[in-house]
Amino acid sequence: MNVHHTRGIVLRSVKYGETSLIVSMFTALFGRQSYLVNGVRSQSKKSGARGNPFQPAALLDLIVYHHDQKSLQRIKEYRWSTLYNHIYDDIFKSSVATFMVELLQKCLKQPEENQPLFDFTEDALLALDQAPPLVVANYPLFFSLHLANFFGFRIPDTWNSNNILLDLREGLFTPAAPSHPQYLDAAHSEVVAQLLRVMQPRELSEIPLTQYTRRYLLQSIEQYYAAQVPEFGQIRSLQVLQEVL
Fold this sequence. Notes:
alpha+beta, CATH 2.40.50.140, de novo design (two linked rop proteins), 2 domains, globular
């Protein structure tokens, strides 16, 4: 068993025993991994809430033991790689971050290294932490549309005056309605095209959307992911996110 230094993004934590956690994490070196972390739920006057770094979306710097044949790894050392300024204190940003890591977790099926995806997710969380309210409101749409690029079902930006409808099964803009009901009308399809062209989060403030439009598009994108990712199910954090935003 070798020791490695890597960065990690916490996806979720589950209590184990009296004082431990099993932490699902997306790591830069090994992709999605599960770690048994002993003693982090015990508190004392000296240690305080030692398990605090293992909340969803936390960005950590890790020294880990890794064995390719094991499904449960161990962490030797951990610390924050970046401390957020706002995500855990702002209910809007916290809800968006929770949505982001749940969506990522549902798509990560194999423990494979994917450095571009890790960098994208880390950068997206850091940008969310600093984003103004208008950007935060559109952030779930931005993240979910661009995340698809890394899993092989990117929606190509081919919207134009002829291709005005988005087929949510195929992920393609088409000139006419498909034979099934899972497609967006012309107005909502154009909004998706605008969001696909956003390269920097700050540009999201230039796309004013109503609460209804955001909610409808997020539900539609959930349908699209469910059609592409096996055993995708439902995004549990989506309902909370829609209520908050």
